[in-house]
Amino acid sequence: VAISNHFPTTATYFCPGNHDQQIGFLSEHLQELHAEQSEKSKYIQGLSDTDGVKSFDIGKHWSIVMLNSMLENQIHGELSEDVISELDNLLLRMELETPSRSVMLALHHPPFPPAGDIPPWVGFCLESRDRLLDTIKQHFSVRVVITGYADSLEY
């Protein structure tokens, strides 16, 4: 949300991660921002920590689908069976309605460590990566997967 202070008319999307460890915090924060009815608040969208999947259309050709990989009081991430099922159904519906639309998936926890199986990273990743990858393989619309977490990675 801090970036929106510097770029108030730039769309800002966020999804919960390991630093958002209290369920309900992001939901309350998002509601407060939108309650302000300020010019800035209409550009801020997000996946609250109580949502599993949320999508946003970006123009005519792209959608962002955000996935909640947060587990309360845990560092690693997980996509529940409900989230995987919801994602699968959403992608199927999108592909039937608009076959030319491309999808970018966004989630906080990376399915794989940034530089291979580096031991310190193993515990920080998405534990349900095989289920996510199996789902992605079934849908032609998924073009990009972006993740967070590597906020202090040094090479």
How would you sum up this structure, described in words?
Helix 2 (25-35) links the parallel strand 1 (12-14) and strand 2. The protein is α/β, with parallel strands linked by helices. The mean pLDDT is 77. The strands form 2 sheets. Strands 3-4-5-6 form a 4-stranded mixed β-sheet, covered by helices on one side. The protein has a two-stranded parallel sheet with strand order 1-2. The protein is globular, with a radius of gyration of 16 Å. It contains 5 helices and 6 strands, in the order αβαβββαβααβ.
Which band does the percent of strand residues land in? 15-25%
The succession of helices and strands, N to C, reads HEHEEEHEHHE
Could you tell me how far the N terminus lies from the C terminus, measured between alpha carbons in angstroms?
A: 28 Å
Mean pLDDT: 77
Using the CA coordinates, give the radius of gyration: 16 Å
Helix content: 25-40%
- Write out the strand line-up for the largest beta sheet, numbering strands in chain order: 3-4-5-6
Shape annotation? globular
What would you call the structural class? alpha/beta
The total count of helices amounts to 5
Q: Biggest sheet, open or closed, and with what strands and sense?
A: 4 strands, mixed
Spans of at least 5 consecutive residues whose pLDDT stays below 50 are none
Number of strands: 6
